[in-house]
TrEMBL record:
PANTHER family documented for this protein: DIGUANYLATE CYCLASE DGCT-RELATED, SLL0267 PROTEIN
Pfam family, one: PAS_4
InterPro entries: DGC-Regulatory_Protein, GGDEF_dom, Nucleotide_cyclase, PAC, PAS, PAS-assoc_C, PAS-like_dom_sf, PAS_4
Entry protein name: Diguanylate cyclase
Organism (species): Noviherbaspirillum pedocola
The PAS domain, residue ranges: 126-198
Amino acid sequence: MPTAEVTILDVNDSFLRRVSLTREDMVGKGLFEVFPDNPADAEDTGIEALRQSIAKAVSTGEVQHLAAQRFPIKKTMPNGKVIFEERFWNASNTPVFSPDGELLCIHHTTIEVTNEVRAVAALQKSEKRLTLALKAAGTAVWDMDTATQEIIPASDLVFSMLGYEPGEIITSSEWISLIHEEDLPGVREMIDDVIAGRRESYWRELRLRAKDGSWRWILSQATSVERDAHGRATRLVGMHTDFNERKLAEQRVREAALHDPLTGLPNRALLFEYGSHLIAAASRNHSRGALMFIDLDRFKPINDIYGHEIGDRVLQEVGRRLIGCTRQEDVVGRIGGDEFVIVLPHVDAGRYPAAIVAQHVIENISQPFLISNLELSLSPSIGISYYPEHATDMSSLIHTGIRSIVHMLTSSSI
């Protein structure tokens, strides 16, 4: 029967090689003498766990198992220094009985799993770093079972980035219902294409409705990771990246790049971009549009006499008055100095002639400007060109408008 000291009766060569000991170092000696506790290591609980496992095997007569247990091995270095080398083992303690049922010994078997434990620990550490990195980047990972359409998040970030509670949104359809109507076209088809195998992945910038009713820009992407024998995806793994602030910043930069900083009106770049689309549409639809070039008479003396601050305020008021003369679909822009442009997408002789708009502009701009106790006067010179009959590009339309400028005093001047 095993002694209280748990004396080692025999040991195989494989174990001896693992612990760098000889048979003489072990046989006939107490197990816990050969493998003592490390008094300096508070985490060294393996020896105590082994004591309890052996005691339970003795008391119950049943096999006891220890999984990935930490058993540091005592070693004496060539310089005489004693160290405890961290090792991990799977261990089993099996009672061995005589034919008449007497407990003879405990058969102690071990499999070293140090490398496996360290690999798992490294993986967990890597996963933790990845989780922190994804969180810092505003990225949430999710997994979808295509049979149930259930979205299984890797973390609560997929919900919290939109202000929802974990589990508040479950299925793919529920997520799709949050997409802004302008971003929705093609989304279901895109996901279906990935599931059906017509494409491997998708990538889309979307606005999703947050719990507070606001819209947040999300980069949604997913790929198929498992397919059945027919090539149909059974599992998708994807990511939602919150890039709302970056998207809004990009929009602000674009707005700043395409708008006049003084008046807030579209600048030359935006006018040319928008106008090019209108000209192309007019050509396709056999319709007609107009461009009005407006030059401010007597602005330069105001600027020279009263200074740029007064001049800037006059230009700002001109911009406001021009907007008041036009429809919502018309575009008012400033292309430089005291030069403005109005693009009229749809004009006809009966309902909305360009000449009528020009007359409104003359009447409004000719009204006095009351700025800083000053009463200032301007009058506009206006040239009108039509597309596509006069030109099919913005630059030519503007030049045609400049050439056709007539100083209008009454509506009959055009």
